[in-house]
Amino acid sequence: MEHELRWYGWGTADKTYPLDNRPGAWSFLRTALDLRGDEGFPACAFDSIRLRAPRLTDAQLDALRGIVGGEAVQTDARARVLHAYGRSYRDLIRLRRGDIPNPPDAVVYPASEEQVARVIAFCAENGCALIPFGGGSSVVGGVEPRDERVTVTLDLARLNRVLALDEISQTATIEAGIRGPALERALNARGFTLAHLPQSFEFSALGGWIATRGAGLASTKYGKIEAMTANVRVVTPRGILETRHAPATAAGPSLLQLLMGSEGTLGVITRATMRVRRLPKTKDYRALLFKSFAAGAAAIREMLQSDIVPATVRLSDEDETRSFFALREQARGWPGVYEEMGLRLVRALGYSFERGALMILGFEDDPLAGQGRAICRARGAFDLGHGVARAWLRDRYATPYLRDVLLDHGVLVDTLETATTWENLERLHKALARTIGEAAAPTGSRALVMTHVSHCYRDGASLYVTFLARMARGHEIEQWEAIKRAATDCIMTQGGTLSHHHGIGYEHAAWLEQEYGALGLAALRALKDTLDPDGMMNPGKQGAGIIAQG
């Protein structure tokens, strides 16, 4: 039986990320953030939330039920709250306050592409806005109603099948609403994997990954979702648009690349043909400790530029490594004794979790794995073995629950990400940490800024930043906005990309002209006007959607 989703936070209500068995956690956080101990920001009672009544008439609701079935049209409070926001910091603060002034008027669950097309036609005929919804894990405002029109949210959860698997070409045709676990179960049963494992894996869907150009969790060998996507089928207000599956790029501009990353502003992705691969026969995941973040980054760059491509490489900077160590689940009994002996050895050899940089390095079916580890050793890495890597793999989908625990205790916590060239990586890394710290200072809080490299390429890498501060009570969103604005300005002026895989939504829209230029935005607007002339598809998102409306 599926557990109930947590309406004001991450995942299911039966799970959390307890810190009671991590004895160093709260003392570390109190010192790092100057917590007083009286902070707290609990969620309001669900029954206290007052939603605007649905604005669809009985006749309109009956028409929708005639398309998708009676049970597949929901107007109850819980369904509307669960589809009102994504899971950004701003979203979670408003949910905890019960501040939901513009919920969708109905949530509709189509079971086929034909039903999707009919719902789009209904919305066009009735002047409604339509928001495609996969798992709702957007952290940039990608699923929030941002329009005064009556709004229908189209939840694709029933489009959840693997339709075909071509074992010769190693491709699979898959419906867009399938979530990560169900997709991998279906492929694994046939000996295949998509190998796309973002941190939101359990609560995000294939269509959402494609619509935001999502990246897997610290995956280098398997890359971002666009490298895995062979073609997509999209239902637009003007009809069905499908790209042609070819093993290489055809002549002319890539229509596929224009549709990817469109975040529901052009149409609804209903299915895609994905490049899959055989399940690996061997896996070797281990942790390495470098004396500095710079040394670890140099090792990654050397591996990639030597055509040694790990399945996973994740390099934490010194602040994230120190935090990881402080928040770790400490072993007891004999395992604890062995852990302490290991830590003494690490210190005796001149390494430190307080000042070093931790790398998770994984190879799968790779004959060059030994050469990759040799490059790391030559850059001064100490091999910690497999235990720390196993703990990271075990907890990788659990850590989003920690954000809810921190919010409960009055701690601002959010993430942002970017990418840049190797030459610029360290400069941008330092500038971001400094900028976030300075932006948090006026609120009277120290900031804890933790960064890791999560995806790497021959010419550069991503930087994924997590930042914490003591909440400015009564001004929680304003405090966050100041930090977010300063950090994004820093990214844009210091040579980073606006986003790596979080997408644009509306929270990044203010910087789009810097990213694309005025002419680039005009080209996006022309595409939007062609496929969605009435601006009904996810209005208010991305530069194309915003500019198309004036």
Short overview:
With 550 residues, the protein is of the alpha+beta class.
Layout: helices, strands, pairs:
Layout: H1 25-33, H2 58-68, E1 73-74, H3 77-82, H4 89-97, E2 106-108, H5 113-126, E3 129-133, E4 151-155, E5 162-166, E6 171-175, H6 180-188, E7 192-193, H7 206-211, H8 225-228, E8 229-236, E9 239-242, H9 255-259, E10 268-275, E11 277-278, E12 283-290, H10 293-305, E13 312-316, H11 318-326, H12 333-348, E14 357-364, H13 369-378, E15 382-385, H14 387-395, H15 400-408, E16 411-421, H16 422-440, E17 447-453, E18 460-470, H17 476-493, H18 512-531, H19 542-548
Parallel strand pairs: 2-4, 3-4
Antiparallel strand pairs: 1-2, 5-6, 6-10, 7-11, 8-9, 8-10, 12-14, 12-15, 13-14, 13-17, 16-18, 17-18
Helix pairs in contact: 2-5, 10-13, 16-17, 18-19
General description of the model:
This protein is about 35% helix and about 20% strand. With about 550 residues, it is α+β, with helices and mostly antiparallel strands. A seven-stranded antiparallel sheet has the order 15-12-14-13-17-18-16, with helices on both faces. It has a five-stranded antiparallel sheet with strand order 5-6-10-8-9. It has a four-stranded mixed sheet with strand order 1-2-4-3. The longest helix has 20 residues, at about 510-530. The two termini are about 45 Å apart.
